Amino acid sequence: MNTSHSPHPPPRVRVHTLPVRLTHWLNVYAMACMFMSGWAIYNASPIFGFTFPAWATLGGWLGAATIWHFAVMWLLVANGLVYLLAGIFNGHLRRDLLNVSVADIRHDLAAALRMRLGHRIGQYNAVQKAMYLGVLLLGLLLVLSGLAIWKPVQLQALTALFGGFAAARVVHFLAMAGIGLFVVVHLVMVLLVPRTLPPMITGRASRHLAGERHDA
User: Fold this and answer.
1) pLDDT at 112 over 80
2) pTM for the whole structure
């Protein structure tokens, strides 16, 4: 009879808090709805010389797409406020995002271009910090320009700040494109380092993975 004991599973440590995980997955849903309904609204009056395919839009017609867009906007704003407040009170913003310098960004960007940028599960390198901070600022710009488009008369001072209704639409579109680029880069990084995905669901990773570097 074999009396040997199976080895204990490696200890697991928390790498993502519950607020970070919940707001992340709510953002996935909300951003998908915002992109698709926004593309349907754009198609009704294109700014540039192209439109988005119907299968990539949400709502089916302008009125329904607008309802979707503004309904999900409030979910996105509320979710963003929860993320910011939780990040302030639990130290996530100060500990994981704000402690970055221009020199750190230059160093890690050069490493990324050489495909030598390391990744630790649950820890952000300088490039990731810059991207997350940038997308937060783009989100704020997206909301403000969206309000300027939505209520150009009631919020005429805000609309004027963007250079008028037409200019606000361009700003809104470009901010959306910037966030879309972030999403693409984010997905590519997940594909390159797939072991970063399960901890975003469970919140935990084995101790040696949380401290191990994985070059991509």
Assistant:
1) no
2) 0.77
